Amino acid sequence: MRALTVQPGVAGSLAVEDVEDPRPGPGELLVDGLAVGICGTDKEIAAGEYGWAPPGAQRLVLGHESLGRVREAAAGSGFDPGDLVVGVVRRPDPVPCGACAHGAFDMCRNGEYTERGIKQLHGYASQSWSLAPDYAVRLSPDLGDVGVLVEPTSVVAKAWAEIEAIGNRSWFEPERVLVTGAGPIGLLAAMLGRQRGLDVHVLDQVRNGPKPDLVADLGATYHCEGFDAAVAGGRPDVVIEATGAAPLVLDAMEATAAYGIVCLTGVSTPGRSVSVDAGALNRSIVLENDVVFGSVNANLRHYGLAAEALAAGDPGWLARLTSRRVPLESFAEAFEERDGDVKVVLDLQ
Predict the structure, then answer these.
(1) What burial class does residue 122 get, using C-beta atoms within 10 Å of its C-beta: 0-12 exposed, 13-18 middle, 19+ buried?
(2) Would you say 45 and 62 are in contact if contact means Cβ atoms under 8 Å apart?
(3) pTM (predicted TM-score)
(4) First CA to last CA across the chain, in angstroms?
(5) Domains of the chain with bracketed CATH
(6) Could you report the per-residue pLDDT of 125-163, keeping only the tens digit for each?
(7) Is the pLDDT score of 80 beyond 80?
(8) Measured between alpha carbons, how far is residue 207 from residues 181, 217, 225, 340 in Å?
């Protein structure tokens, strides 16, 4: 079968090549790959910044934003041939740590987890793959191609679950939400905010292209005049930061309403210095009982929440998040930066 592979740590090593067909273990599903989404993580691995091949291998099958259809399922697996499925990315460490032992492998404490398409496990960018039922999520057939958005939606489903858990330490009825960044994570975070009936504001830099309309069609407010303008109408109760841009991270920490919550989902580039009055920032956070926390990855529960959120979404709006569908053999086009892109998807069939 054909698969998109990379030699981790070697820039420019992406290639589509023939690899061995999957050999499902006892009880595992055999799945025909339909599509994988391409995100910043994939581009960083392709650039040689990180990534780990499976033990004994030099190359890694890329792809963690999966969508497939079950070809073969063992009796008692809970799945049937024809089921639309997504594979969970992370696997718990073999030790395991306390978090992994309790199913919270997204919170692994010792770093010995593995991840498909990223760390020591082949990913989903192949024409077929095997999958343990415990790490498979069945989707509504109505989702169709939109199902490839489950993995990024799981990230924001977790973020919202954490926000609500933190907020419930006290009376918590948030009204205003600011999302910084209108990429796939930011737009999906905004969608989940609107599903909660909140007044959602989205800040990004671009003035043209699909993003302003996507935000408006959610019933949210789009801002492109800078952070101060985005919060001029009122300080947000919740900020979901999805850019990793250091100035925005600091602005978010300083801008919330009393006992506000800032969730950081963007990964910052190290080595960039920003001047900040740390004393004033600390004083504000302490005196207002604010919370700032980071969130990444997701466990099986969050994938289920993501599938539910997508099923409740507007199919037409969700379909518009995919800017381009690129055939597997034309993979290089999927890694190009183009104006107007939101989500680029590799078609595996």
Answers:
(1) buried
(2) yes
(3) 0.96
(4) 11
(5) 2-138+314-347 (3.90.180.10), 154-294 (3.40.50.720)
(6) 999 999 999 999 999 999 999 999 999 999 999 999 999
(7) yes
(8) 13, 16, 9, 11
Those residues whose C-beta lies under 8 Å from the C-beta of residue 279, and which sit 6 or more positions away, are: none
Residues 201 and 216: their CA atoms lie apart, in Å, by 10
SS3 annotation, 232-249: CCCCCCEEEECCCCHHHH
Angstrom distances, CA of residue 73 to CA of 84, 92, 128, 130, 242: 12, 23, 14, 10, 38
Place of tokens 């989940």: 192
pLDDT in tens, 112-125: 999 999 999 999 99
Torsion of CA 182, 186, 192, 196, to 10 degrees: -80
- Give the residue among 340, 317, 323 at the shortest CA–CA distance from 209: 340
Best CA proximity match to 39, nearest among 162, 124, 130 = 124
Residues in the chain: 349
φ/ψ (deg, to 5) at 287: -70, -20
Task: Please count the CA atoms within 13 angstroms of the CA of 206 that sit on its side-chain side.
Answer: 16
SS in 3 state form for the chain? CEEEEECCCCCCCCEEEECCCCCCCCCCEEEEEEEEEECHHHHHHHCCCCCECCCCCCCEECCCEEEEEEEECCCCCCCCCCCEEEECCEECCCCCCHHHHCCCHHHCCCCCCEEECCEEECCCCECEEEECHHHEEECCHHHHHHHHHHHHHHHHHHHHHHHHHHHCCCCCCCCEEEEECCCHHHHHHHHHHHHCCCEEEEECCCCCCCHHHHHHHCCCEEECCCHHHHCCCCCCCEEEECCCCHHHHHHHHHHCCCCCEEEECCCCCCCCCCCCCHHHHHHHHHHCCCEEEECCCCCHHHHHHHHHHHHHCCHHHHHHCEEEEEEHHHHHHHCCCCCCCCEEEEECC
- Residue 14 · residue 43 · CB < 8 Å: no
CB atoms within 10 A of CB 334: 24
